Amino acid sequence: MSDEIVLIVNGKPHTVQAQPETPLLYVLRNELGLVGPHFGCGEEQCGACMVLVGAEAKPTCRLPVSEVRRTRITTLEGLAAEDELHPVQRAFIEEQASQCGYCLNGMIITTAALLWKNPHPSDTQIREALDGNLCRRGAQLRILRAVKRADALYSEAGGR
Ligand code: FES
Known about the structure:
The chain is α+β, with helices and mostly antiparallel strands and 160 residues long. 36% of the residues lie in helices and 14% in strands. It is built from 6 helices and 5 strands. It has helices at residues 24-31, 76-79, 87-94, 104-117, 123-129, 140-156; strands at 3-9, 12-18, 51-53, 56-58, 72-74. The chain has a 5-stranded mixed β-sheet. Helix 3 crosses helix 6 (140-156). The longest helix has 17 residues, at 140-156. It is globular, with a radius of gyration of 15 Å. The protein starts with a strand and ends with a helix. The chain binds FE2/S2 (inorganic) cluster. FE2/S2 (inorganic) cluster binds at residues 39-42, 44-49, 59, 61.
């Protein structure tokens, strides 16, 4: 049986009808039309489905929608302000940090969470933070450069 569930996504409330155990990913993509988060493994192993729940990057492919009622959720689509890209999005574009792009959502979301919590992370900290995000196309070094560029963009802009 489905419930009426209120989600706060990208700053706006949405009321959806869903079974409480439905993965958040399905609701975001199928009910709200937010296709930034992708379905990859479906087992919380690849990071393609990441969103920000509060300030934490979390996979959504197994996260029951009922667990995030009235919690602030930010998807890839919600990172940018109006028509200005988020610094992490800009950095990934400027470093051409993708090959097929399938992992990009998770990489960007995880980087945003990392840099918010830990300005100026070391290479080791960046690698550890992105460990749950799989890139199968060999873009890892460009991704590492993109994280550092995003950090620099934040600094140029006077903070995060
Ligand atoms: S699809 Fe969710 S972690 Fe892979």
